[in-house]
Amino acid sequence: MTRRELKPVNYIAYGLNDILGAGSMAVISGWILFFYTTFCGLSAVEAASIFAIARILDAVASPLIGHISDGLGNTRLGRRFGRRRVFLLFSIPLLPSFALMWVSGQHYLYYLVTYVFFELIYAAVIIPYETLAAEMTDDYKKKAKLAGARILTGQMSAILAGILPSWIVSSVGGKESASTFLIMGIIFAALFMVVVFIVWLFTWEREQTGVSEDALAQERKGSVADTFKVLYTNLTSTLKIRAFRLHLGMYLGGYISQDVFNAVFTYFVVFAIGGTVVIASEMMAVTYIAQLAAVAVAIPLVMRFGPAPTYRVAISLYIVAIVALVLMYVMSGEFNLLWLAVGVIIAGLGRGALNYIPWNTYNYMADVDQIVTAQRREGSFAGVMTFIRKATQALAVMSVGIILEMGGFISGADAQSDQAISTIVIMLAVGPIIVLLLGFYVSTFFKLSKETHEVLMAEIAHLKTGATSPTSEQNKHIVEDLSGFKYDELWGRNNVGRFSPSVIKPGVRDAFNEK
């Protein structure tokens, strides 16, 4: 099959979507809890419950979107607009829902509905989008460049998320208010619509070949119960891939630590060290600027030394920064702009690499899965990734809200008790460092690199010829380590991603076995 050549405009267009992906998550993790408890009259627990309810609904919606996108190419709609990209196109007019989340003075139900609705639209864009790098190319370096373009753009949008409140406060009279966040929401909603259209315009999908698509088409002829049975069999089977399990451990270590840090940071600046919302906004922007620089450095480092060693260096930097910020509070107990700036810069250098590396390695997970299943299941992996990302972020922010209230935090108060401030400082330090150390440990087992990926793709090509034995003993060990399966169990000689005989028709099941 002939592949289209990736041009600079394609890399740029692909990367732009992370204005939605990382930009919206940066705004939500950094500001939404503070907005709810400061300007909307919600308690910390009420605000946290919004995230919990949204995740319960998302547990069904996100995996379902990924599953549907894997098989949508067999429909007239999918053939016309693309099985992945059709979701992008139809989501564009719904993206202004992001601005509705930032209207103050409403009831709890309003904030619940607006948050859940945007999260569903977000999933409808991000899950299909996350398959596009693997759809557009099989080349390791090109996938790395696509991941780099995505994360670089995401960091730029995160800078905007950090600095916008400060700019808006300055332009409307120098006092932060609920309107600050509404204006920010409107600006981002407009950006989201533009960039998603550009992504749709300048990306493409691979030709659909093989038996798996036919099987998926016949699956959808069954009952709704059968469809969900197939869906969750397919999704849970992704966790049988060893490289993907390790990848998730590294991903969660890097991202949960940032979710907790972001949710607590504004409280830390305002209440623990006597700063303001404007200063917190500016420091968040400084962090994201450092992250942007770190991503640019991490791309060649990952190519040269591999993702896991670079990941461990990034974790070390981030832990040093967190310790420095806590020491500022413990040693002086007052605001020190220089110390704060140095701390967030070091944090940003670590965080930038932690953002890039998981999304770089994610682009190769469908390749590892292919040698196990002989299928391309990018949509299933994207569904699992997006669900886990949003679920863990919500869990982190929800936990911050609950712990804040248990620690004596009073919503809307200009000052907090010593107990509440101590709770804030402890959360800033302990939560992120624990998950960072877990990610560090998991990374010591992760062996995917440029060299091992080349072996993986060579073995896939070898198996496509009908071979059943490895090209060498060394290559056998490499693919077994990545996949978690013995070589004689690869290429569909297993039950990974297989469906119940009661769900798949005999003819389709036979076709899978032949493949």
Summarize the structure.
The chain is built from 22 helices and no strands.
Notes on the protein architecture:
The structure is a single chain. The chain is mostly helical. It has two domains: 8-454, Growth Hormone, Chain: A (Up-down Bundle), CATH 1.20.1250.20; 455-514, no CATH class. The chain is 77% helix and 0% strand. The chain contains 22 helices and no strands. It has helices spanning 8-16, 18-39, 44-71, 76-81, 85-91, 97-100, 108-129, 132-136, 140-171, 178-202, 211-219, 224-237, 242-272, 277-305, 307-332, 337-362, 365-373, 378-406, 418-443, 450-464, 473-483, 506-514. Helix 13 (242-272) runs antiparallel to helix 14 and helix 13 packs antiparallel against helix 19 (418-443). The longest helix has 32 residues, at 140-171. The radius of gyration is 23 Å and the shape is globular. The two termini are 18 Å apart. Mean pLDDT is 84; it is low at 210-224 and 500-515.
Q: Examine the coordinates and then state which fold CATH places here, giving the name of the CATH topology of the largest domain.
A: Growth Hormone, Chain: A
Average pLDDT figure: 84
DSSP, total strands: 0
User: Which percent range describes the beta-strand content?
Assistant: under 5%
Q: How is the biggest beta sheet arranged?
A: none
